[in-house]
């Protein structure tokens, strides 16, 4: 069972599971199997018969929902949990993210934790970057900071391995791409590939918050959180590489240019 099965990572987990012949159940508020973190009455039906669960947590949960969910999963016979976390949660000491990991670790079920960095797909599927690509100007406060963007297909591949194979229980995989690049370099790669001019526009954190709110992309609280992450990148704290993909899959992660080529071929950035 894949929570958030219609989201950026979840739908890729479902697709890869099905390609391998597994019975995959997407569960979300918009899928045939309905699951809502805020409606506990939907949980049991979504879990029924599931041997392994991919968990996309509720961003608003302080841990109480996840604690109750893992308890129910254990009672219903789930044998494996794979939690989507983030490397920044630990690196930046974000209590809520760390608490979620600890809840899964003490659930009494075999667990695997995935800690990806920013998705390459943010440039095509997440408004704080994709809206700028569409407009021809990507305004953001990362400056010259580098980041090792991870392809969501690789995150999904690691999740699938953890859900279906032996040898991943008790493991925490930090997931990055093979190299760290600036947002300006990422934008240039997209622009060159699709043959359309896209500019990188550097911004201060305060101006970036105003931009996100004025464009209606996020509320003020979420915009402040995103701006805080961009400052972390700008200051060079998030540039280091991790080898979780190599550990879990025995291969190198996809490069950002591979993501760009695939996305351009799909027509996503067609003017």
TrEMBL record:
Name recorded for this polypeptide: NAD(P)H-binding protein
Organism listed in the record: Phytoactinopolyspora mesophila
InterPro entries (UniProt xref): Ergot_Alk_Oxidoreductase, NAD(P)-bd_dom, NAD(P)-bd_dom_sf
All copies of domain NAD(P)-binding, residue ranges: 4-165
Annotated Pfam families: NAD_binding_10 (PF13460)
